[in-house]
Structures are given as C-alpha cells and as structure tokens.
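Hi D.,

Good news: the full-assembly prediction came through. Inputs first.
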Amino acid sequence: MAAIDETVQRPVLTPVIPLVEVDEAAARRTLRDQVAKLEAELSASFVAAYPRKGIEFLVSGRGGPRMLSLGDLERLRDDLAHRVQEARRTLDDRAEVEDRHRLLIEEMLRDPARYKWVRVSNEDIGEPGCRHWHVRPRLGPIGMLMGWWRVKISSGCPLATAGPQ
Amino acid sequence: MSGPELEPRPGWVADDVRAEYPELRLLVLPVDARPSRSPPEVRRRLRELSDRFRGAQAVALRRSPVPWAYRVFFRQIGLDPDVSRTPIEAAAVDRLIRGGWRSDNLLDDALTIALVETGVPLWALDAGPVQGELGIRTATAGEPLGRAAAQPLRLPAGRLVVADARTPLAVLFGDLANGHGVDRKTERMVLFTVAVAGVPAIHVEEALYSCAETLLGT
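Then the structure:
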C-alpha cells in the first residue's frame, strides 16, 4: 500500500476566557426562597414558644414595600437565620429548665417534707394558666411542728374583679 | 355565586415587578354599591366570626398557609410583618384587643368578613376618580400618592404601589391615597386584592365574591 502523505491541518486553539456573568436575578430568587424557609422556621418556633414570654422574634424590615436588592436580601436572610438560631437555643434552654421543674413537682408530690415551702408555677413548666404547686404544712403551725407537709395545688387564676371605683 | 357582572379581572403588573415576583397578581372587581350602614344579618355574621375566633387561632395563624404566604411576601418586600402586620394578623390582634370585630359600616364589615374567612386582604377605592386599569408598579422619586388631596404624600423612588393609568392610588399593603377611599359621595366602588406566591387562586376569587355579595346583599 502506497504511503500517503497527509498533512493534517489542525485548527489553532486560542485560549478562551469564559465570560462570567453574575445572574443577580437568580441569586435574588434563591435568597427569597431562603427567606421563605427561614420565615417558616421562625413561625414554627413562635408557635412552639407559646405561652413562654421574653423570646425575641423580631427581625427588622428593610424600609419597604420595595424590591429588595441582592445586598438587602442577604442581610435579611442572615438576620432571619440568626433570629431562628437564637430562638431555638432559648427554647432548648427553657425546655431543659422546664423538664427539671416537672421532675421537681414529681419529687415534691412523692416526698413533700424534703421540699418545704417550695413553689412551682405553670409558667415554670412552660404552660399557660396560673396553677402552682406549693409545699405547705397541713393545719398551719401545728403541721409545721408535727412535720405534716403536703403539696397544695392551686385551682387556677383568680377571678376577674371590678377595679376600684 | 355571582352574576356575569361580578367577574374579577386581572390588573397589570409592571415588567420589572413581575420579573422579580412572578406570582404577584392584582385582581380587580368593580361593584355597583354605595356606602351604607350594615344590615342586621351582616352584623350577626361578624359577631359569629368573632365568637369563633380564639386566642389560640391567633397564635397559630402564622403557620396557616395563606397568612404565612403574606408574611413571607412582606419579608421579601422589606416589611417586618411583626411591625407592619399582615392584614389578617392585624385583624386577629384587633379581635383580641377589642373583644370582637365591631360593626362600623357595610364596606368595612364586608372587607373584614372576606379577610377573616379567606385570609386574603381586600381594599376598596372610589371608582369615580380611577382612570384606566389598576396595576402594581414602583413609584418614581417624589411622585404624589393620589391626586385628590391638595398636598399629597410624596413617595420615595422604588416604593411599590397600586396605581391607575395616571398616579399611585395606594401603597402596596399600605394606606390608600387621601381622597380616593370610599366616602359618602361614592357611587361605585372598585375592590382590589393582591395575591402572592402560595395563595391559591380560589381563595383570592372567593374573597372578592364574598365581599361583593355582602355589599350587594345577595
């Protein structure tokens, strides 16, 4: 077979620098989705927190109503994430304390004499209402002298009364 | 449900706003109704709604799909829903503070009933001064809010507004322009509502129909 001389013309490759275009609209869309997710989590924490007080849920606005820039959305997302984290941590801490109070109530009921004058309220166990558990002596001073202790459970919130005339 | 004259029609949304919030919609429903006192059956309906609404519902409101969708949209347009409350949450707070939704007049009662039943907020404009179709756009710097007042509020650039063909008539989820709300001289009203992502179309239409039917006594 005859040798065939072939000259292959190869194209000259010049390096191509990719043109990077930042799609800000897509980034804003992603941030808005994240804001929606974080708002859902914050709302869930808010509902779970009820009736506990003193937990901060505020995330300040951005001077709306207006279309937020990428920077505004990023800051909003970060603020929301921070608030969600804080709320969760506070709720976890409170839940731990409330569990301890529930255990304390059980122990008070089992052995009142060990917990003289101790008082636990509904608020201490994260529940609504004014009920409280109070270790008090039966028959007042006599019970104190005799060591007759018991847990008195209050019946609830005081009835509304008319204010001073 | 509704006669042929009660047909909500979509308002326009400016291109830049639609690009940012593709699911944002404005629905408009003109109603031949004049302001008046609420008849006893409307007052009773409002009372029944008040009786059915409890504190626990108010707390859980923000986890319900429609109120939550408005909360999210408030965040996305730079409003803090705990300060500038969403209309349904504002109504819930009002119910808890005042002990019930008090009857004011037929229009306000109809707006409240529709809001509480569907979670979708509605507003009413005096149809007389409205020129052309209503829509959502951004305001230009110093643009007046409304054209009826002698010294209208001047809007900052980029404020989201509900406007007719000429001027903004309301801040989105905010106040109506002075002189454009319904008053004693109103012959005809234009109801409008703003739907956001996550709010089913049926809720939005139901809110408009409910309000219109209450106003028309049908």
